Amino acid sequence: MTAVTEHMTATPVAERPGDEPRRHVYFATIRFADLDPLNHVNNVRMLTYLEDARIALLKWDAPDGDARVGGMVVARHEVDYLRPILLRPEPVRVETWVSEIRNASFRLEYEIVDDDHVYARAASVIVGYDLETQSPRRLDDNERAYLGQYLHPGE
Question: SUPFAM superfamilies per the record (predicted)?
Fold first, then answer.
């Protein structure tokens, strides 16, 4: 069983129960501006939902307001669009977890879902980046520990 943490809700982020991995959940509201001429959410807009969820996981959800990780850059995105999202009043969930942690990078996996459908599955490779030297860097122990709370190897 996977524990879920939620962002943008009244539910506080729960501590990880035992050794159970968890997923981060971000609620993305569908806006009229997100629609394309076919009247469904534009594929590029879905990448924005992933970006918002990624930033929430890595930066915004810290109780003390500090970033959970240092400088990072996206090295790769992969997206499988499985079903169109139509305009609706209910938000979709973007569930995010870590599938691999390496010395200088990690892999995030995502699903854009609701209770009935999976709309997209995606993955991003994120690389630690030193903004001052403009070069890749190794992940530190605190970053690795934080990411490890969301680690679902092999998913």
Answer: Thioesterase/thiol ester dehydrase-isomerase (SSF54637)
Is 38 inside a domain boundary?
yes
Q: Which structural domain, as residue segments, surrounds residue 64?
A: 24-149
The confidence score (pLDDT) of residue 155 equals: 64
In this structure, is residue 42 part of a structural domain? Answer: yes
Domains: count for the chain? 1
Q: State the Rg of the chain over Cα.
A: 16
Query: Within a domain: residue 64?
Result: yes
Q: Phi first, then psi: what are they for 33, rounded to 5°?
A: -65, -15
Task: Say which residues have a Cβ less than 8 Å from residue 57's Cβ, sequence separation at least 6.
Answer: 7, 24, 26, 68, 96, 108, 150
18 pLDDT more than 60: no
Q: How confident is the model at residue 13 (pLDDT cuts 50, 70, 90)?
A: very low
- Whether residue 16 lies inside any domain: the answer is no
Which residue has tokens 């490890």? 148
